[in-house]
Amino acid sequence: MIADPAPPLSPFVLTRPRFERVGALLTLLGIMLSFFGLSWDIQWHADVGPDTFWTLPHLFVYSGSTLTGLACLTVSLISSSRFRTHADPSWIPVLGGRFHAPTGFVITGLGALSFLLFGLFDQWWHTKYGFDVTLNSPPHIGLLVSLLACMGGTTLMFVQGQRIRPLEFSVSVAVSLGFALPVLTFLLLEMHQNVQFVVFPVLFFSVAMLLVAAVTRTVWWVLAMTLVFAAFRTFHWYGIPLFDQLYAHSLGYEVRPDARGFAYIPFLMPMFAPLAGLTVSAVLAGWQKLGWHAATGAATAAGLAAPLLYLDGSTVHLAQTPALIPLLMVLGAAFGWVGWQLGTVLRPRRTVPDGLQASSGQ
Prior knowledge:
Blueprint lengths: L10 H5 L2 H30 L8 H27 L8 E4 L4 E4 H27 L8 H20 L8 H25 L5 H21 L3 H31 L13 H4 L5 H18 L3 H12 L18 H23 L16
Antiparallel strand pairs: 1-2
Helix pairs in contact: 2-3, 2-5, 2-6, 2-8, 3-4, 4-5, 5-6, 6-7, 6-8, 7-8, 7-10, 7-12, 8-10, 10-11, 11-12
């Protein structure tokens, strides 16, 4: 068992204001809309090509970011108006203390604002230089970094200063992982950098799986997170090419003859991620029964699961490069340990010691 003693939280923090939860869910919905639009937009550029700023994929991208920004702004204004009578220690001052808001909403709100500004930059860029088909243009880099900030802030909304909600937190981690892993890999691929083939899946998955375990202290939420990730992958794998073709035909366009016929973003999302999640959950459950140190178990579990992310061959064919397996295990163990430590820091302080539970908790 892993003791986690802490001073009590105030009743206000434990119950969490309803407006915060609604705002966090709307923010997560906005992130998912932007994720879908971005995946579709990349597919559209690759398979069709003709483009304007007001395409349907772009509308999904920018409507999602707008929803995210408005939700964060609304929560920030409500929390600022309540600060004098219902001050929450997790709220931080903004603009010299004129406003107060939860940390996650501040980060995500600034990310959404930055995203919309980079969207204007992207429109100017296309007006001046034409509609490119590359992902690594200056405005696109800014858009991607802004989305990463939004996703990181959204994840914080479900852990800072309140009772943990494992389902919402696990979904937010799965969505963030579903965006960061394939998009950054695709970006480096366009830059002709091959290091992402080995490092990125192990880095992101090891950190994400052990982050969920450390925050929720319920190991099977790791498996749940990877199942959500797999559901996103499946939806985009089958849905994006279909939407692409239907939309192209509605505009009188044809899919390019050299189109590869598969969805680019889901291709870079490991197919057997749930197998890695099951392995980590099972190892940590057994580790907890032995009463050994949790961080060591986290590193061991991540190391054992790391090679499983490559079984589908979408990134590395392990059968052709068996020497990579020890390297993947070492990287997975290192990043898994980092993920556990990060989750321990993010986890709200509790009054009752609790361990790493193999059954349903919280």
